[in-house]
Amino acid sequence: MVGYGCAGAAAALEARASGADVILLERAGGGGGSSAHSGGEIYLGGGTPIQQACGFTDTAEDMEAYLLAALGPHADAGKIRAYCEGSLEHYEWLSSCGVPFKPSLWDSPSWVPPTDDGLMWLGENAMPFAAVAKPAPRGHRVTSEGYGGKVLMKVLAEAVERAGIRVHTDTYAGQLILDGGTVTGVVATHFGKTVTYRARRGVILTTGGFADNAEMVALHAPRLTGLGVTSDGGDDGHGIRMAQALGAGTARMSSAQVGITLIPGLVVRGLLVNAVGQRFINEDQYPGLLGQAALFKQDLAVWVILDEQAYEEVPVEERWGVVPHYAAETIEELEQEVGMPEGSLAGTVHEYNRHAAAGRTRTSPRTSAGCGPWNRPSPPSMSAAA
After folding, report:
1. Would the pTM count as exceeding 0.90?
2. Which of 25, 160, 5 is nearest to 97 (CA)?
3. Cα–Cα distance between 49 and 327 in angstroms, integer?
4. Residue 46, CA atoms < 13 Å, CB-side half-sphere
5. 332 and 346 in contact (C-beta within 8 Å)?
């Protein structure tokens, strides 16, 4: 096993449970990888005990329908179906390892809840997805103060130790050994010394992506070049390159989670518009979809527009320290401040309010409580950069 993050720990535990003699190789001084830096949110559904405790019913079919719609036309339908059909088993497996989930719901849009609540919405109740599948929150968050990835990896590492799995840290796997078309081992280095491992039943690579490899990013996902990265610094794609050296195929190398630094609690109470003042997506969708739309369709030239009342309605802890970049008494003044074409934002607000008054918006109706006439006349309007 090469790579000791969440995937590596899970694969090692399953291999050990099936009777395999397992060695985990990790380049760093300990396990965790980028998984330990994550929010600790795991997408699970189908009627987990946490969903039931929070009063929600869910099915694997609804979970599958939502994911197929949210992930777009090139989603791997077979993999999604298998993942959804096995979701309850995934939950039970994590629980059996000791991974904690609190049976409570964080009922506000967020990247990461400011509490230790164990369930959160990830866009399932937003249009158009709410019309495709019965909405249910499926973001299962590991119980933790702050990001939960550290707790997830601590628990899995303890399970690895209990299972008697050997872990060789500070060991960098650099090459796979091939014998007659079969992978039979790994060549690694340990403090400058070459070490070889003979694999009797196979080698599993769980080394993460290539976000930290600028050359690979430029080659496979050029739109991500120069953007910030959330990782432990070791996602250099070396596992992918090891497999490619033997002729392995790759898929979806240009895909990415785009964690744009807009605040979901703000954006759902306002409007998300492009450089010419036009809405381009339903604001209460999963924040990762907002980020993808902003990057791939708007080149990140986007603004979150709120009126003062909407801004003040967002609890301070959900603002994450964000303050408006611009403030104005009228929409027309705000257009000038931001540099939008005359009448563009005003037209968008007028159309949004006209349709919201009837319980819909022209391009993407909302289902959240944030839907309603916007730009209340008394307070000034404001804009926060995304």
Report:
1. no
2. 160
3. 46
4. 18
5. yes
Length in residues, the chain: 386
| Domain architecture of the chain: domains with CATH | 6-34+153-244 (3.50.50.60), 41-146 (no CATH), 264-385 (3.90.700.10)
Strand partners, 182: 179
pLDDT digits (tens, 9 = 90+) for 39-70: 999 999 999 999 999 999 999 999 999 999 99
Q: Are the CB atoms for 2 and 173 separated by under 8 Å?
A: yes
Q: pLDDT of 133-152, one tens digit each?
A: 999 999 999 999 888 999 99
The single-letter code of the amino acid at 182 is: T
Q: What is the pLDDT of residue 361?
A: 57
